[in-house]
Design a protein that fits this description.
The chain folds into 2 domains: 111 residues, Archaeosine Trna-guanine Transglycosylase, Chain: A, domain 4 (Roll), CATH 2.30.130; 99 residues, no CATH class. It has 5 helices and 8 strands.
């Protein structure tokens, strides 16, 4: 069943199970936060990546990607001048069906997408391979002098593992979006296995390393 969500377009991708800090300063998004605070629980909005355009400025946004992620408000801090600092948590993917730009901020008619594992045997095999590949990737990052990431334990559940690895890799927006759009965890893990192999080979051949994107962090729904 479809529903209407306020939308927050960004130049990046949010995955289910990850935290997103936001600093709100534009008038339209201040209004979005106030509307969420005045509304009932759960207070959620849609984070969706920008295909063409930019987050701020007069030119604005000309196209959005089709698949986004619902973000639930977890923490709100308001400043005297009307700005906000937010912590939101990704909860569920959605498909954008229709866009409404008649209000102060964008709204979208969306379909919420089920979280499927896919073929369980394939997901299990891919998960084991991704765990090995991810650790090799982190080791290659550390060898190149990038920020060292400590991963004491990776999730057993295929979907949680797939999203943690997706948000931790230093990859382009198009790759991040493609992982979000995968139909199930088994397919996402298979795609990550190939990406990890590619990125690890590239890191080992480079003399410098791109800076990691550390804006997201895992969360525990409890």
């Amino acid at each position: 069943m479809s529903q209407t969500l306020p939308l927050f377009p960004l130049g990046t991708v949010l995955y289910p199970g990850l935290l997103l800090p936001l600093h709100i300063f534009e008038d339209r998004y201040r209004q979005l936060v106030r509307d969420l605070q005045d509304g009932p629980e759960p207070r959620g909005f849609g984070v969706i990546a920008i295909r063409k355009g930019r987050e701020t400025g007069i030119a604005g946004i000309s196209a959005l990607h089709e698949i986004g992620c619902v973000a639930a408000l977890r923490q709100v801090e308001e400043y005297e001048d009307g700005r906000f600092d937010l912590i939101a948590a990704g909860t569920q993917r959605f498909r954008l069906l229709e866009l409404d730009d008649s209000g102060p901020y964008l709204r979208g008619q969306v379909d919420l997408l089920a979280e499927d594992t896919g073929d369980e045997s394939a997901a299990g095999l891919a998960a084991e391979s991704v765990r090995r590949g991810f650790r090799a990737y982190l080791a290659a990052l550390a060898q190149r002098g990038a920020t060292q990431v400590s991963v004491p334990g990776l999730p057993d559940e295929p979907a949680a593992l797939s999203y943690l690895v997706a948000t931790s890799m230093i990859i382009d927006l198009s790759d991040r979006q493609a992982l979000l759009a995968e139909s199930d965890a088994a397919s996402r893990l298979a795609a990550e296995r190939a990406m990890l192999s590619r990125e690890t080979r590239m890191l080992r051949s480079l003399t410098s390393t791109p800076a990691p994107d550390l804006r997201y962090s895992p969360y525990n729904p409890n």
